[in-house]
Write a structure and sequence with these properties.
Blueprint (H helix, E strand, L loop, with lengths): L6 E4 L7 E5 L5 E6 L12 E9 L15 E4 L4 H15 L5 H23 L6 H6 L1 H12 L7 H8 L3 H12 L3 H18 L4 H7 L5 H12 L3 H9 L1
Antiparallel strand pairs: 1-4, 2-3, 2-4, 3-5
Helix pairs in contact: 1-2, 4-5, 5-6, 8-9
Organism: Gemmobacter lutimaris
InterPro entries: AraC_lig, AraC_XylS_family_regulators, Homeodomain-like_sf, HTH_AraC, HTH_AraC-typ_CS
Pfam family, one: Cupin_6
Amino acid sequence: MAHFALTVSPAPAGQGNLLVTAGPDGTADRALLCLRGKALQPDAALPVFSAWVDWGGEANPLAATLPDPIRFDLHQDAESAALIKVLRAELDSPRCGGPSVVARLTEVLIVRMLRDCIASGSTTPGLLAGLADPRLSRAIVAIHDRPEKTWLNEDLAALAGLSLSRFADLFTIAMGETPGAYARRWRLLLARQDLARGHRVDRVAHRYGYGSAEGFSRAYRQHFGTAPIAERKRISA
């Protein structure tokens, strides 16, 4: 999911969507993360660390399928609990490079939380359920890594180690859409993000494997209901 920038900014407790709390003994015991933008309140718990995290907002298909919030038991992960101690030490004793260290440590914590969440799976169709299946995950990662490629079901089934029919059935059940539909949607989500950054329509079209800017514009309009040039104008306005 490196296609979506992950940014972390420490925030006062109650103003962040990442919250680490401690038990009565002062030891960090739980981490909560709400990637849909809701601030988390510590309530009666002792706040240890709070930050505001952005990971592409609604454009990120993984964020839309994650629990709200993600709950992570630090008692079950000694390495993450130790990471919190280092993070807290950086905040308590500011030094050169401190903000960068805090940001990187927080990113590591978030990745570990996401891995735990993916390993737990999901009963709701979507990216989380797809990534939880090791076979489907190989195909999904390939789609993510090469969005410009016109993926055939046969190629993806081979990566998953499944027959064509079995792969198509499992993918659709887990993801809630066909492999081709997901690959197209993923490609257009990335294209939209690039347009929002001010990239030219023709260059975006070429980057994501469209034969022409016109063909890309038709696909974009069909999916989002607006022309890609409108996205650039909205940003520059």
